[in-house]
## 1
Amino acid sequence: MLPRFWRKIKYRYNLIGSKCKNCETLYYPPRNICPKCRRRGEMEELELWDEGRVISYTIVHETSDDFKLNVPYIIALIKLENGVIITSQVVCNPSEIKIGMKVKPVFRKYGEDGEDGVIYYGTKFVPAD
């Protein structure tokens, strides 16, 4: 895939969810059909750049060589202000993470394909306070 084409895919650089126009339920990742309303629902895309709070987390101390993340790192369940719950990495010192901690989304590097390859970016979270 050409890098120029890859960058134009809106889901690559945005935190996109969906909202049912019928029952107003929010979903992440986005859905094509509302599980509550089924065919009566009409889905619309929605950017989810709200701050949120950590509702649960784990600290990863070991990973495969293919994953290429410095350990330890934090993976958390985050409840955004609009009610959507997502799983994401929280970038901070593991001693700082706490249940209820306020976090905000940021644009960060995920990884790259080799030393001369394509660099991947996306949404992670950092402490908001």
Note: The beta strands are 16-20, 26-27, 43-47, 52-60, 73-80, 85-90, 102-112, 119-127.
## 2
Amino acid sequence: MDKDISSAVIRRLPRYLRYLEELMNEGFERISSSELSKRMNVTASQIRQDLNNFGGFGTQGYGYNVDHLHDEIAKILGLNTVHPVIIIGAGNLGQAITRYIRSGNMSFDIIGLFDIDRKLSNKSVAGRKIMMYEEMPAFLSKNRVDIAALTIPREDALRVASDVIRNGVKAIWNFTHTDIPVPDDVVVENVHLSDSLMQLSYNLAVRTCSGST
């Protein structure tokens, strides 16, 4: 991809993919940008601008072939290959993420769970055995791992991130409620659940205030 694409556009692509999957399940073969805009509650112009960053994919007078557009967006998002993932922190959140990913038809495969709590040793979550943290370096030396998901206390985040990076992992899915600095050749996606909840609280407060005036 020769040009830089804004992060806002990239973050909208999974939403396009979800709606296209719904259309495929409903038996749609094609859809126009205006029809898609009504479903997604965004403007047709926004849809066309977003997709034109990657070549457009539409035909004037026809619209978009749903299957083709779905496949192309999946390729852009790197979903045409399976990404091996490990979960570090096999508590409630780590187990929930494992079950969610393992139950869906996704391009991600949880191949290992790790924790320091010896009471969890050899227990299984969605068919994956929980291993002890000290086993992780040997596991990473024998298995390709694209992504490490960190569902651990924030005070452990930097140390654990350093460990996985040192062992060759190039992407971190960070649920630790603290930002993690990484080298240029490593990518990190910070998922701050509390931030999302506070944004929801703000929107609720604004709506409540608007309704009372």
Note: Strands lie at 30-31, 58-59, 63-65, 83-88, 108-115, 124-125, 128-132, 147-150, 171-174, 187-190.
